[in-house]
Amino acid sequence: MKKWYEKLFDNYGKQYDNECFVIGTSGECDFIEREINYDKTLKIIDIGCGTGRHSIELTKRGYNITGVDLSESQISRAREKAAAENLRIDFHIHDARKLPFREEYDLAIMLCEGGFPLMETDEMNYQILQSASSSLRSNGKIIFTTLNGLFPLFHSVKDFLAKESKEGNATYDKNSFDLMTFRDFNKTTVTDDSGNLVELDCNERYYVPSEITWLLKSLGFKTVDIFGAKLGAFSRNDVLTTDDFEMLVIAEK
Questions:
Q1: Which of 2, 79, 82, 139 has its CA 20 to 30 A from that of 93?
Q2: How far is CA 18 from CA 125, 131, 215, in A?
C-alpha cells in the first residue's frame, strides 16, 4: 500500500510547479553558489529533487548535478523540463533511504522537505540523512531545509498553512500536533495534473535544532549550523527563532 507522500506525487508534476513555494528557486540557488564559493568543479546531488527546479537552475549556471526522487511522475516532469531547455541532467528514480552512491559527491542538497522529514518513523528519516552522508566525499557538505519544531510550540500550524496557501494550491485541514512525537497530522487536499481532487491523510515530523545537530554529528559531520529558512532568501544572517516555520541546515564533514 502506497504511503501518503507516494500517492501525493503520483500525478502531480505540473501542478507542483504552480505551488507558491517554488517561487524561491533562483534565490535559493544564489545561496548554494555562495556556500560552495562558485566552484563549478564540484559534483552535486539533489535529493528529493521533485520536478528538478533546483537541479535545472544550477545546471543553467554551469554546475554538475544529479537529481534523484522517489516519484516517477516528478522525475518524468523534471526530464521533460530539462529537455525543453536542451539541458543534460542525470535524473534518477531512487528511494532517498537507499541511495546507491558512495563518496561520489561534494555537496548534497535536500530542499523544501525533499524526503526528510516526510517518513512515517524517525528511523526512516534518519536513514535518509545516513544515505545522504554516505553519498558524500570525506570533506562533503549538506544543505537542507526541514520543519522547525520550535514553531508549533508557539504558533498554530493550521493557521500558518492557511495564511500561506494561494488559490489553486494545496490546502491543509484538521491539523493535530502531537507534542509527544513532534508530528503534525493533517488532511491535505491537492488538485492533480488530471484535474482531480486528491485527499490525503498526512503526517510530518518537526525537529528541534538539538536533534538535528545530534543526528548529523552521529553521522560524522564536524560542523552543523542552523538558521531560519526564508523562502528564496536563505542567509547565514537569519538566526533561527520560534517564528520560523522551517530551518536551514548546513553541515560539513
A1: 139
A2: 27, 30, 33
